[in-house]
Every structure is written in C-alpha cells, then in structure tokens.
Amino acid sequence: MTQANWARLPVVKSKADLVYDSLRAAIAEGDLKPGERINMDELARNLGVSKIPIREAVKRLEADGLVVSRVHSGVTVAQVDAAEMRGVFLAREAIEGLVAGLAAERITDARLAELEAVQQQMRGRLGTRSFQKLPELNSDFHRVLAEAAGYRVLAELTDQLLLTVRRHRITVPADPENWARVIAEHEEIIAALRRRDPEAAARAAKAHISAQADHEVADQE
Amino acid sequence: MTQANWARLPVVKSKADLVYDSLRAAIAEGDLKPGERINMDELARNLGVSKIPIREAVKRLEADGLVVSRVHSGVTVAQVDAAEMRGVFLAREAIEGLVAGLAAERITDARLAELEAVQQQMRGRLGTRSFQKLPELNSDFHRVLAEAAGYRVLAELTDQLLLTVRRHRITVPADPENWARVIAEHEEIIAALRRRDPEAAARAAKAHISAQADHEVADQE
DNA sequence: CACCCCTTCATCGTATGCGATATGCCCGGG
DNA sequence: CCCGGGCATATCGCATACGATGAAGGGGTG
C-alpha cells in the first residue's frame, strides 16, 4: 500500500523529469516571470536535449497550471490572476487549519524538531537580512507541517496552493516587517503543536493565513 | 486578465489532448481500474497515433496523480490508498464547506437553476434505478456548486478531490440507499442556497461530506 | 496615404527509428 | 527440490525529421 507512494519518487530521473524540476524551480524562484515566453526549441538547444523531453515537462507544468500553451503561438508562464489570489488564500485557510489540527494530534517529536529547525533558520535569515532564502524556507515550514498531518493529499494541496502564492509574491518587493510577523505567527503554531492542542493549532494556522491574505490582497481592490 | 483562464481551454485539441481526455474519462469511469497496466505502444496502435501524443497525455495524467510510471517497467493506473481516502474526505469537508458558504453569498438565479436541474436528473435516475449515470451527475452537482463560489481554484480543487473519490468508489458495488441519502443531502444544500444562508449552506455541505466519509471509509479499519 | 492580401518564416505537433534497460524465463549448480 | 546467474524480449526514453499552421512583414492597389 505504501508502494504506490514510493513509486511516485522515481529512482532514476529521466531527462524530462530533470527539465520539469528545473523549470518548476525557475518558476517558483521567479527566474521565469509570469507572462514570460518559453521557446521550446531554444530551451532544447540550451539544455542539450531534443524537444521531446522539453514537451513532456511542459505538459506536466501545464497540468499543474504553471504554464499555458496556445497552439502554434508559444508557451508562456501562467499569469497569476490577482482576483484568484483571494480564493487561493481562502482555500489555504481551510486546508492549513485542518492540517494544523491534525498535526497537533499526531506530530512526532522528531518532526516537531524538524519544524523548529526550519523556524530557527528563518529567524537566522531574518536577522542577517538575507531575505532571498526566506520564501523557500517558508515553503519548507508549511510542507513539514502538512506532512505531520499524516495524509499525503494534504501535503500536496498545501504545496500546490503555496506555490501559487509564491509566484504572486514575486511581483511585489520583499518586506522585512512582514517576514517578522510571519515568523512570529509560525511560532504560535509551533507552541500549540508542542502542547498537542488541536484547537489552538488550527486557530493559529487559520489566523496566520488570514493575516497573510490581508497583507497580500487587501491593496488589490 | 481573464485571458489566462480562457487560454486553458484550447480551441483546437491536439491528439495528445484527445488521448488525455479519453484516458482520464476511462479512469474516472472505471474502465481502467487501479493497478491496471497501460501499454503505450499497444495504445498507440489501437488509437492509430504514434507514441508521442500518448506519452504526453500520460505525463499529464502523472502530474494529476492518476497514473504512476516506473522507468522501463510500464505505466499503471494509480492505486487509491484506502488510508489516504480519509484525508481526501477531510480535505473535501474543508473545501466544500468553504465553497458552499461562498456560493450562498453570490450564487445567481441562473446557476441555482442549473444546480436544481442536475438535482432533478439525479432524482430521475434514482427513480428509474439507472445508477450508472449517477457518479457523473454527482460530479456535475459539486462542480456547478464550486463554480458558483466564484473562484476557479476552488472548482479545480473540488474536481480533483472528487475524482479520487470516484476512483475509490469504483471498487465497491453501487448502493441505492446511499444515493437516496446523497440526493436528500444535496437538497438541503440547495435549500440553504435558496435562502442565501452561508452558515447553513456550509454546515449542510460539511455534513454531506462527513456522512459520505463515514459511509465509505468506516469499514476500512 | 491607408488598407488588404500574399508570401515567408517561426514554431508547434507528430511520425519513425534506434539505443538503453528492467523483467522474466530458462538452465545449471548446490 | 530450490536458488542464483545469464540471456532474450518487451517496453520505455530520446533524437531526428517533416508536415501543419498561425503570425508578421512587405508590396501592391484603391
């Protein structure tokens, strides 16, 4: 039964998988910006592979909603619609509230330590004002939390939604004060997890997402 | 800004898209059962196309989590892990509660009529005991409801989660009494929507998913 | 001078073919 | 009788090549 899970982690990665990982990371990091054109032939030449692995990677990205392709007119990185962001945050609030409640019930000490390690790194990065690593660490925090909830599907949903938020956030400049608030709210979630208090954890997680939503989409209307 | 949305509905469908639709439908209907092997060469011969469109379709299905592929050892329809189903239902409860609440605030009369039409069809199918169309209609119901919430992302999440449930449900025989309960609970959701009562709609939707979860995963442990 | 059509080009979509590799069977040894 | 190694085969992964189609620019005409 766990076999199906391991099967999704291919031991040997095909070239298409490597291209997929590369492009996905580039989109997540903002190296490929929304609306930017992707030329498949050029990409194939640059990476030293043929178009086929490129096409397969692009198809997967399209299924993920990260790129859009119009026939015979190129592939572009998907736009993040500001109006949709509100829906994304609402979904995150629902899912991460659920996740935090479940995690409080069943989180192991090892995973709690892992979460605290991520939190510690975020504090360090904030202290040295090296902000560029913070989005990745923030993703790690939410991913570890979601994994602690015990259901793979919840981790996947969390990852998927947070990626959209990261892509949207690229369009706005870094804001140190916001990161300080994020880290403080993460601390509250961790505190509730330490007490194994599902109700408080869910409340803290929902408040965290809600506050972030206010920060990111309030000025859009 | 809405352009990006329309771009995801390609006007002209490539062969890869047709193969994708075909396979996805076959998996949803249960014609391709979990664990079943998919031979790409054979599929290419049967459909009269080369392997390339097949491969691209399979890559998209893999991104959707509907198939798993191990290198040089074939592609199989993904197993639906019974333990994961509990997580899927928890996620659905969170998302569809949110969806129903939003829908109650902003549903149009036209869309409400659409929802009632689906409900009417389900009643008809139950009356004539033609159960095989009910899963599809049930998907329609939840899809229309999610679209009424106004955020594309919520509709996509709903669709994705419900597809997993449908695939799991294939493994168990049809149960007329269960469909009667489903339809009754749908009616309660519709009633709350008619009154434009977000709180009641959310409560009814959550109760609906929760009851279904009890029905489908209770006997698994 | 403006508009339209036609040609040209760039880019996508797909077929074919070959190399790589995991799987399963068969045979020999313990 | 059971187990391990080697070979045949099926299947996948990728490169090359060609056809199809939308986009853009230039020239001609009203």
Automatic annotation (TrEMBL), chains A, B:
It comes from the Bacteria. SUPFAM superfamilies: GntR ligand-binding domain-like, Winged helix' DNA-binding domain. It comes from Kitasatospora indigofera. Keywords: DNA-binding, Transcription, Transcription regulation. Residues 13-80 form the HTH gntR-type domain. Pfam families: FCD, GntR. This is GntR family transcriptional regulator. GO terms for molecular function: DNA-binding transcription factor activity; sequence-specific DNA binding. The keyword DNA-binding applies.
